[in-house]
Amino acid sequence: MRFHACLSALLLAGCASAPPEPAWVSEADPALVALSGTSRVDIEVDWFAQVPPDEVALEGLAVVARRECPGKVVTIRLDTELPESGWKSSRGGAIETVLDGCRGRREAAPGVAYVHVLYCPTNPWGEEYASNGLCRRLEKPFPHWQIFVFKGTLRSRAVLGLSAGVVDRSCLVHEFGHALGLVANPDHRFEDGGGHCTDTSCVMTKPKLKAILDNAAKVIATGETPWDYCDRCRADLDRARRLYAAR
Fold first, then answer.
1. What range defines the domain where residue 61 resides?
2. pLDDT of residue 216
3. pTM of the complete model
């Protein structure tokens, strides 16, 4: 009798469900990273005439988007060039009107995840909030990601042999990483909650002095700076995919 009781207990233990995943895993956007649900990712790029996107930046975005949005057709399309003269009247809340005017997609499309990128000379709300770029989630006029690249400011970062295109690439891929859901894992996220990786070789790290010093030798020798996600960030996205697949 005791033997059968022990055997039953072992079987029940073996059938017990795995502990639930921590909440941070679900911060990855399923519309972008999950293996199902959406079949396309539409990335629209608009820009003010004085700050066009660099080709190397768009190529870098294509690499990470096609890898981290598996099973989906990823399209990156250059859409609207805004007149240089329009920037002066686009500061602060006026930038929302600019977005409404240049956004090519007007409503949600079934099976399509939409990301809108706008290149601006500087942060229209002031650089004390974010100086290089910004990513935010908008629900109107339909749910989508809005990425800003402040290209005029980035040009001043092109030092130690860095080209403006290389700096542009790092910023664009960094902001797209926030749309994917990086960095939510507290094991390698800065404690300030800003979604940045503690690995200074990762493009999701903070663009602060330590990262600059840690990468200075590589920058001087090769003219390159980190522009891809580290192994831990990519593992976080894989973990989210497994969670969404199990559901």
1. 24-246
2. 79
3. 0.90
